[in-house]
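Why 23S rRNA (Uracil(1939)-C(5))-methyltransferase RlmD? Reviewers of the renewal asked for a concrete example.
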Amino acid sequence: MSRKMKNKVITHLAIERIASEGKCVGHHDGKVVFVANVAPGDVVDVRITKGKSSFMEGEAVHFHEYSKDRITPFCPHFGTCGGCKWQHIDYALQKDYKRQQVVDQFQRIAKVPIPEVMPILGSAKTQYYRNKLDFTFSNSRWLTREEINSGEEFERNALGFHIPKMFDKIIDVEHCYLQDGISNDVRNELRAFARENQLSFYDIRNQVGLLRNLIIRSTSTGQTMVIVQFGENDPENIPVVMEFLKNRFPEITSLLYVVNTKGNETFHDLELVTYAGLPYIEEEMEGLRFRIGPKSFYQTNSDQAYELYKVARDFADLQGDEVVYDLYTGTGTIANFVAKKAKQVIGVEYVEAAIEDAKLNSQINGIDNTLFYAGDMKDILNEEFIAAHARPDVIITDPPRAGMDEKVVQMLLRLEAPKVVYVSCNPATQARDLALLGEKYQVEKVQPVDMFPQTYHVENVVLLTLKP
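Here is what the prediction returned.
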């Protein structure tokens, strides 16, 4: 973008529609202009921040007209936190936009014939729907412009979420509408306790400080896991924090901590200490119990996970005599969920700890027709693996946001399973993979599922069948 365009203000830009990643679109001088934090129907002045020959990006600096479809956001942190970017848009319209996002991605990227995309399955809960939240301690609380301009001194220790695009600034969250139960009380009371006892909050830039991260997980069965991540191995103060949580919140069924002095917050390679309760919590679905450890992945909207898995199972239409390959099986939730309707289910996953969870989940539910293997999908799913097992009648694949490796797609084309059920959290990469699978497969059904109200994210399930 030329220097003349940067910081230029386009006046009275009409916002037309929502595009990918939740940004909205307007047009100026024949170019597309992407703008965040607006709604279709708004008329705004936009300051250009970046762009290329065919498009520009900018931020709204003044509103001339507000869209009739706007609603009042319910969270006081909206617009700063960045976690729920669509609170200002009516939920019915959110669902329409998400469905259209699937249609647009498939038309633009997949370029294969698709049937009518079914109406999106909305979430019954549009607040308090998450079962897992990560909060960050910081000694560098985000200050509002009003606070900065006041010249006053403010408390800088915070516990909350990262400000978008600012790794070292944390918004101090008073009430989060994403998780119910004791989540808000645990966060607020632990923060107050730490301030009162002058415990150090983490300095993200210099990577020092005791309190680093707080993870709260909950289940529909009423169990709660709390994990405290410490940035220093402090044998005097760590027990002080953990005793406070244990005594103040006896409802916590799994209380753990980990000392992490690494440069990032990931702890999959670190040992966790169970301070009180059990080292896991359990979720339930159709009478099946799924054990969730501190390192386990589980869909973060439990109710909608059930709806998502039912769609996948319905698309598979198992009759009881099929061999199913469940790729990217994670902790085996889908594999165990469909096992009672299949002859055998073979799950493959990269993370070894997740495969151990998958095996355990089969065991505790008395399921004996599953097999699980850990390894890189593109390496493990080879000719030798296929020769050692029955060929699949149905393949269920639920890859991460990046989609399937091209080698995995090529193996699917060689396997020629009669049905492929593709579950995706990213319709763009799903569409890319469908373009490759279109060599031998046709799209029979497309079902979007909303797992994350108030955000632009959408899950999508596609049924593929071999071409005649």
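Residues 143 and 149 are 10 Å apart (CA to CA). This is the kind of structural detail the renewal will allow us to pursue systematically.
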